[in-house]
Design a protein that fits this description.
Length: 277
C-alpha cells in the first residue's frame, strides 16, 4: 500500500494523488456476492431531499460483506484482496472448506493464503483477522468491526486504517477506546475482529479536482453567503456582506458550525465513560 503521484500534465493533475493498489490481488469481484445498488440522490421514500450534495457518481455494485462472522470454528482461507467502491478499506474474499465464499473487511497485513477463523472458544489464537467475543480478547489488543449488540454484527470501527483498543474489563463490560477518542462500555459477549483495518493511507489522498468528487457522487457545496435571501438566511446584501446573524445558521435557521445537536438525555449515555475530543 502506498500513495501514487502523477506528472503535472494538466493544472488539476498536479495536485492529484491516489492509492497504488499494490495489495489488490483480484480485479473483478465475486459475482455470487454482488447486488445491484440503486442511487437515491439524497432523497427519501417521499422523493424529498433529506441529504444535500449527493447525486451523480459512477455506477456501483454492492458487495455483500459478512459483518456477523457467524460461521463458527470453520477455518477459511483468504482467496483474494479486493477493492470495494462502497467503503474506504479493502475487502478480503474468504473461501471455506465446503467452497462457500464470503467477503470480510480486510485487516492490515493480511495476505492471500492466510487462514482466519471465527469462534466463541477461549482457545482461539489471537491473530489478525480472527473474530472472537471481547471476553476472550486480551486488554490492549487492537480490534475492528465491533458489535454494539450481541449477534447484530459489527457496526462500529469499519473505516480505513481505524481500530479500537480494549482498555480494561470490568464486570460484564469491556472499556473500549474508539478512534474518536471516546471511551465506551461494550458487553463482553459482543464480538470483534483482531487487528487494524487496511488502507491506512486513505486519509492522505488528495482528490485534486472537483470532477473527482463528482465521480464519488458528491455534488458542489454553495456558501449561504453567496445565495439570495429567499434561499438562505445568510443570503442577500449589496456587495460582499456579512452573514447578518448573531451566529451561523443552516438554510433552515438552526445554529450550526460547532453547535451540538445530540439529545440531552439518550439511552446510551450510561455506556459512555469519556466523551470524544
Amino acid at each position: 500500500m502506498g500513495i501514487k503521484t502523477y506528472r503535472p500534465t494538466t493544472p488539476s493533475r498536479r495536485f492529484i494523488t491516489g492509492a497504488d493498489f499494490a495489495e489488490i490481488s483480484k480485479k473483478s469481484p465475486e459475482k455470487s456476492l454482488l447486488l445491484p445498488l440503486k442511487k437515491t440522490g439524497g432523497r427519501n421514500a417521499y422523493g424529498r431531499l433529506t441529504v444535500r450534495h449527493r447525486g451523480g457518481g459512477h455506477k456501483r455494485m454492492l458487495r455483500i460483506i459478512d459483518f456477523k462472522r457467524n460461521l463458527l470454528d470453520t477455518p477459511a482461507k483468504v482467496a483474494a484482496i479486493e477493492y470495494d467502491p462502497n467503503r474506504s478499506s479493502r475487502i478480503a474474499l474468504l473461501e471455506y472448506p465446503d467452497k462457500k465464499k464470503s467477503y470480510i473487511l480486510a485487516p492490515l497485513g493480511i495476505k492471500v493464503g492466510d487462514t482466519v477463523v471465527s469462534s466463541l472458544q477461549k482457545e482461539t489464537e489471537i491473530k489478525t483477522g480472527n473474530c472472537l467475543p471481547l471476553r476472550h480478547i486480551p486488554s490492549g489488543t487492537l480490534i475492528h468491526n465491533v458489535e454494539i449488540n450481541k449477534g447484530r454484527g459489527g457496526q462500529i470501527v469499519r473505516s480505513a486504517g481505524s481500530s479500537a483498543q480494549i482498555m480494561a474489563k470490568e464486570g460484564e463490560f469491556a472499556h473500549l477506546k474508539l478512534p474518536s477518542g471516546e471511551v465506551r462500555l461494550v458487553s463482553l459477549d459482543c464480538s470483534a475482529t483482531i487487528g487494524q483495518l487496511s488502507n491506512i493511507e486513505h486519509e492522505a489522498i488528495s482528490l485534486g479536482k472537483a470532477g473527482r468528487s463528482r465521480w464519488l457522487g458528491i455534488r458542489p457545496t454553495v456558501r449561504g453567503l453567496a445565495m439570495n435571501p429567499v434561499d438562505h438566511p445568510h443570503g442577500g446584501g449589496e456587495g460582499k456582506s456579512g452573514q447578518g446573524n448573531p451566529h451561523p445558521v443552516t438554510p433552515w435557521g438552526k445554529p450550526t458550525k460547532g453547535y451540538k445537536t445530540r439529545r440531552k438525555r439518550i439511552y446510551s449515555d450510561k455506556f459512555i465513560i469519556k466523551r470524544r475530543k
